[in-house]
């Protein structure tokens, strides 16, 4: 008897999908996700992963659709889907919609440095300098992993007209990236 996709454990299929994605075998990853979706049609994580694969393929519209499906299945506790949706909408030039999605991600995971950083960048792109500074300062505790936070704070303070603070953060960025 053959061991088709429906006989494999879901955990193994998810691992296989992530391996395919790391190897940039996106079509294979999408096939595995289709099998998983047939097995577990209510699983929001499958749609999230499909959205991420479609983003990697550059299929922005389909990625946004998949991420919205993930959110529809699990709107109250799906910060990663909101985050990925925010990034996709930002890539599509939809700054307001991107900000709305990222605000939901941050509301569901207030301590996530990556979410706060991206929200700060989107606010900066939307010329909301004070709000950008607030989010970037909240993200600053994770700047060791995301040194771009320092650079972004420098840009925000420069736009605000505070050259001394801008220089301070630019120096922190230099120190963090020279190490």
Task: Provide tags for this entry.
about 180 residues, mainly alpha, about 75% helix, elongated
Describe the overall structure.
With about 180 residues, the protein is mainly α. It is about 75% helix and about 0% strand. The protein is built from 10 helices and no strands. The protein has helices at about 10-20, 25-40, 45-55, 60-75, 80-90, 95-110, 115-125, 130-140, 150-160, 165-179. Helix 1 (about 10-20) runs antiparallel to helix 2. The protein is elongated.
Q: How are the SSEs ordered, and which strands pair?
A:
Layout: H1 10-22, H2 26-39, H3 44-57, H4 60-73, H5 79-91, H6 95-108, H7 113-125, H8 129-139, H9 148-160, H10 163-178
Helix pairs in contact: 1-2, 2-3, 3-4, 3-5, 4-5, 5-6, 5-7, 6-7, 7-8, 8-9, 9-10
The tally of beta strands, per DSSP, is: 0
Query: What's the end-to-end separation, in Å?
Result: 56 Å
Our Rg estimate from Cα atoms comes to: 19 Å
Order of helices and strands: HHHHHHHHHH
Give the proportion of residues in helices: over 70%
Mean pLDDT metric: 91
Strand proportion:
under 5%
Please give the largest β-sheet.
none
Helix/strand-derived class? mainly alpha
* Anisotropy-based shape: elongated
How many helices? The count is 10
Uncertain stretches: none
Short description:
By secondary structure, this protein is an all-alpha fold. The protein has helices at residues 10-22, 26-39, 44-57, 60-73, 79-91, 95-108, 113-125, 129-139, 148-160, 163-178. The protein is elongated, with a radius of gyration of 19 Å.
